[in-house]
Specification:
Helix content is 5%, strand content 33%. By secondary structure, the chain is mainly beta.
Length: 193
Amino acid sequence: VNPAPCDDDDDDDDDDDDDTPSNVPPWIPPPAPADCEEGEYGGNVTLRTQEDAEAFGAVYTVARSIVIEGQELTNLDALRCLEQVNSLTAIDTALERVELPSATRVMGVNFEENAQLQVISLPMAEEVDGITLVSNPQLTTVSAPAANSTIFRTWLEDNEELRDVDFRSVTEGRGVVARENPSLRRFVMPNLV
């Protein structure tokens, strides 16, 4: 009698309690900040300083596009109540981290050549169509665990320290490219068809 094709002949117990990508638990998002109120629509905006970010974040929770420019803005903490943005771009900036805990829609993300950028966290963003991350040498973590757009695509290239990528809710996509990320150890996308 031949064993079934999926049987193995080792002596381990084959329990399913390991943390392999096929056993990644579904994402349960943390609650959004409690002090956020619905704001206004901000259109297209360019943020260059912490003051720019604070002024924008105090009034607006939705934007068509946000472009980060210059070497003064190091984080987007002032945008913690941002709910939606169609395009978020930062090229050659001083950003160290991008954490948007209230954002449920971040349609396009493009971060390139940000020498200090270490973390990108979009914990509640379900509507994410594209994430492009190129030549961000200190970037270690990218997390969009709720992303589930049917046209999701990502391009991750030449991010020397990138170790952890979590797109666990993505089930369909238009393309996934991850190359020249020599430190990449964990890429979670177990449901992609």
